[in-house]
């Protein structure tokens, strides 16, 4: 065994050298991405924090009623958000919500087209499946370090790490939904002269939509699970009080901040569920 250890493959050194090469030769590129993403996230935070909290709570409750047609859900959403205000974590909740919104947006914009392409090209899914497995199983801190070096301290490395961690979910579920469309439905569309794009938009995507929406909700939950990790690289939000509570063994603060994260997760999950599924659960 000693000869095997003595002839170690320097994988870590190769990755370190690659990251150093990027920082030396493409710093302008990563700085540009960091500036753009930071501007977008901070802009959304400023807009949401500019609105009075009670008005924003009423607006979110109204959106919940409009989406699900449930007065009880709207009341529950309003009371849950009022509890967050009462606990004193409203600003942190807005910061976390902004991070989750952008992470989910990027994951869906990238993940859904990739999942559709993989469903239509089996060789593509075979090629990307090991990469998806790696993105979901590799420890978060392993790619948190290079993103911190490339994008600097702040919310941007947290966002990039969150996208890397969460994007396999929409890719896999979109692939599953599109590839599981019954053959007879596709053949019926083809018999009526539908083009490939018409089959996609009028047959495959409507049939796969429940699975794609499941990918959306799963993406939101995975993004929220990264909130505390993102706080370790300077991202603001509900993860920061959790980290501080952990460092000071502050049980009260840790429980309250954790409860706020749970409330945000439940509210977003209920808002993004399809109306039929939500009614079935009730």
Care to describe what's here?
This protein is mainly α and 282 residues long. 86% of the residues lie in helices and 0% in strands. It has 16 helices and no strands. It is flat. 33% of the residues are buried. The model is unreliable at 278-282 (pLDDT under 50).
Number of helices: 16
Q: Mean pLDDT, nearest integer?
A: 85
The whole-angstrom Rg is: 22 Å
Helical proportion? over 70%
Total beta-strand segments: 0
Coarse shape:
flat
- Could you give the order of the helices and strands? HHHHHHHHHHHHHHHH
Largest sheet, if any? Answer: none
Q: Can you tell me the residue ranges where pLDDT is under 50 for at least 5 consecutive residues?
A: 278-282
Binned strand content: under 5%
Straight-line N-to-C gap: 59 Å
Counting helices, strands and paired strands, the structural category is mainly alpha
The gist of it:
By secondary structure, the chain is mainly alpha-helical. The chain contains 16 helices and no strands.
Strand and helix layout:
Blueprint (H helix, E strand, L loop, with lengths): L1 H5 L4 H15 L1 H24 L2 H16 L2 H17 L2 H31 L1 H16 L2 H12 L3 H12 L1 H12 L3 H9 L4 H30 L1 H5 L7 H10 L2 H22 L2 H7 L1
Helix pairs in contact: 3-6, 4-5, 5-15, 6-7, 6-9, 6-10, 6-12, 8-9, 9-12, 10-12, 11-12, 12-15, 14-15
């Amino acid at each position: 065994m000693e000869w095997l250890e003595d002839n170690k493959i320097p994988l870590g050194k190769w990755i370190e050298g690659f990251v150093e090469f990027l920082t030396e030769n493409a710093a302008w590129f990563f700085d540009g991405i960091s500036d753009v993403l930071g501007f977008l996230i901070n802009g959304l935070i400023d807009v949401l924090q500019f609105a009075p909290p009670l008005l924003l709570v009423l607006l979110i409750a109204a959106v919940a009623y409009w989406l699900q047609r449930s007065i009880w859900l709207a009341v529950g959403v309003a009371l849950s958000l009022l509890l967050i205000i009462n606990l004193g974590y409203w600003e942190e909740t807005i910061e976390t919500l902004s991070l989750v919104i952008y992470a989910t947006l990027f994951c869906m914009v990238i993940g859904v087209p990739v999942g559709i392409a993989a469903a239509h090209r089996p060789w593509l899914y075979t090629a990307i499946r090991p990469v998806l497995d790696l993105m979901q199983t590799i420890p978060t801190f392993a790619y948190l370090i290079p993103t911190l070096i490339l994008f600097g301290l702040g919310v941007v490395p947290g966002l990039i790490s969150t996208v890397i961690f969460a994007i396999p979910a929409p890719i896999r579920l979109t692939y599953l939904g599109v590839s599981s469309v019954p053959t007879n439905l596709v053949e019926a569309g083809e018999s009526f002269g539908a083009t490939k794009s018409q089959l996609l938009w009028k047959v495959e995507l409507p049939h796969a939509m429940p699975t794609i929406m499941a990918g959306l909700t799963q993406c939101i939950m995975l993004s929220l699970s990264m909130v505390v990790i993102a706080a370790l690289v300077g991202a603001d939000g509900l993860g920061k009080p959790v980290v501080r509570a952990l460092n000071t063994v502050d049980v009260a603060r840790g429980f309250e901040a954790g409860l706020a994260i749970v409330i945000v997760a439940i509210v977003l999950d209920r808002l993004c569920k399809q109306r039929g599924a939500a009614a079935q659960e009730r």
